[in-house]
Task: inverse folding
């Protein structure tokens, strides 16, 4: 099962294109976020109807719901968006790129505080109309104390960087660096790949943001 959570404005394509690009199954649930009040309620209802008609052409038994998010109460809006993510069933997919900015920001804050609950996220581009997957950084992540120095060493090197280079720069044993890299990977701060006999490590966006906060 998959649950899509998406703010909706007057352009239904900003929601339907990302959803259709990922496919719709029988048990798919779509949660459309709209402001509690709109300058044009008729166009808003038309957009919801357009989304419903489009997805029902693929799967007639689709479950589509509308949730009104308060546009004038930022904290309440964040809480509501967070609750929708917490209570969603199956794979949670968040779509960014449509709807009022008053909803977009609370949804973004809620999503960034729950990256471990979100399977994937997509953005509809205002520039070229393309749908792109976005990996959300975990703003709550921290490096394990014993691996902090290794994270700092990696951040000072040109990445991707080999374990050997990290070991030389840190002046500790390779087994220690290997253990630290595994800890950092679990926290989503680095990724690693093996190229032949060489293992290379690279900072993730989450890792880069953590380093920048610590400066």
Result:
């Amino acid at each position: 099962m998959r649950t899509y959570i998406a703010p909706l404005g007057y352009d239904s394509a900003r929601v339907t294109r990302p959803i259709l690009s990922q496919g719709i199954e029988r048990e798919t649930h779509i949660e459309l976020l709209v402001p509690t009040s709109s300058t044009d309620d008729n166009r808003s209802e038309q957009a919801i109807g357009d989304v419903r008609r489009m997805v029902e052409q693929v799967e007639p038994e689709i479950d589509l719901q509308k949730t009104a998010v308060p546009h004038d109460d930022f904290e309440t809006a964040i809480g509501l968006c967070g609750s929708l993510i917490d209570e969603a069933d199956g794979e949670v997919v968040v779509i960014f790129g449509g709807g009022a900015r008053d909803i977009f920001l609370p949804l973004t804050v809620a999503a960034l505080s729950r990256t471990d609950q979100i399977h994937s996220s997509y953005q509809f581009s205002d520039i070229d109309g393309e749908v792109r997957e976005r990996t959300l950084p975990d703003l709550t992540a921290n490096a394990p104390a014993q691996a902090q120095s290794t994270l700092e060493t990696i951040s000072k090197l040109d990445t991707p960087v080999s374990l050997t280079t990290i070991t030389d720069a840190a002046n500790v044993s390779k087994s220690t660096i290997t253990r630290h890299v595994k800890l950092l990977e679990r926290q989503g701060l680095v990724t690693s790949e093996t190229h032949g006999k060489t293992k290379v490590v690279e900072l993730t966006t989450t890792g880069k943001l953590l380093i920048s906060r610590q400066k």
In short: The mean pLDDT is 91.
